[in-house]
Write a structure and sequence with these properties.
heterodimer; A: 246 residues; alpha/beta; Rossmann fold; six-stranded mixed sheet; four-stranded antiparallel sheet; B: 223 residues; mainly alpha; MetI-like fold; 9 helices; flat
Amino acid sequence: MATILEVKHLTKRFVDNEVLKDVSFELKKGETLAVIGSSGSGKSTLLRCLNHLSKPDTGEILLEGVDINGPGINLNTVRADMGFVFQDFNLFTHLTILDNVMFGPLRVRGQSKQEAEEIAMEEIKRVGMVNKIKSYPAELSGGQQQRISIARALALKPKLILYDEPTSALDPELTGEVLSVMTALANDGMTAIVVTHEMGFARSVADKVIFIDQGVIVEQGDPKEMFKRPRHDRTKLFLSNFVNLE
Amino acid sequence: MVSFFNYAIKILPDMLSGAWVTVQLSVVCITVGIIFGMVLGVLRVYSSKFVYWMVTAYVEFLRGTPCLLQLFFIYYGLGDMGLLLKPILAAGLALGINTSVYQAEYFRGAIQSIKPGQMVAARAMGLGKWQSVRYVILPQALRLVIPSSSNEIIYMFKYTSVAFAVGVPELLAQADLTGSMNYRYFESYVVAAIIYTLMVFFVAKIISIIEKKAYVPGLQLAQ
């Protein structure tokens, strides 16, 4: 499979705090990459740097071989190609579910209303929310909102999708519906990077795991291997918190 | 009492023509106020430092001077310099500009009460800053601003009476005119007061209908 994303020597600092230190990894088309690590380790910053929601200080990000910071690159197009799913959903409050999912095709891709609606309906169907298209975000549960925000990202037909702790704001009983949508997408071949605390998901769905600690990639590799035999003490220590899940 | 009603009916045509001018003047100044106010409010939140300071200076200057001074400046002052506007136009402009700075503050408040995540989500989808303002921030701000903005609208509706000072034949001017012609100021002012009250009641009604129509669950000012 072709490499879709290549990250080289990424660094990011906030004032005197170096949040990302020389982070490099790559992702092949269709792969799901789980990024794990404790809070404040830099995982979310890493994700936000990938589409320049937060501007990295140094390093390169190549999307299908093209440096997204290179000359003549429109950052907005790059962002549209990387779907982003937020921890707190951030659905547009004033729009119905249908309009939320139509928003990308209509306003960002400039497609016609009819095309946008077709795409939106398809994605809403995919996340199983067709009966709610006329509702407003505030009328949905957190899990439902997150499924719609995944549909909204998918409607842009992105090359990959970035999930920033997609289940962290949810009640435990609502995480399942979101994870199963994500799993189905992964099985359909959607390329994804998932910053998550859901070790079960990382282990069983991800093709690759990165463990990040204090802005450094401590270990990366096959999830089954890493969960069974972490090579580094810090990974071992971190994973030991989740021993009950194994 | 009979004499009052007879008098009221007699002056009613003049009073209603004044009321109609009041309505027209209000529509002009409220429209100018909301459009300018929206632009100023947006600029105060999203523009560069330089523009921010320009807008802030403009707002503070207009808030720091009396409305009547602004009206005289535009009508007599600019007239002196060769730019003579019709009284109703001068009044519409002066009152519109005056109310716009207050509307700007309400818009700024409404915009700042919108969760930052809304803007971030729009940007993350690949929308430019101003497009995000246009499609995500403004539709929400316009709804959030209704309660505070409508106070200003109703206030302005009544405040159009200062246009009397530059000879606009609005309701108060007509009350004054009929009062002086008939030597019955008291009754004329009572009739004017009743017409103002009724008109303001309808304006408030229209605003509350708009507010209901624009209602979206989950979109209100967080307290």
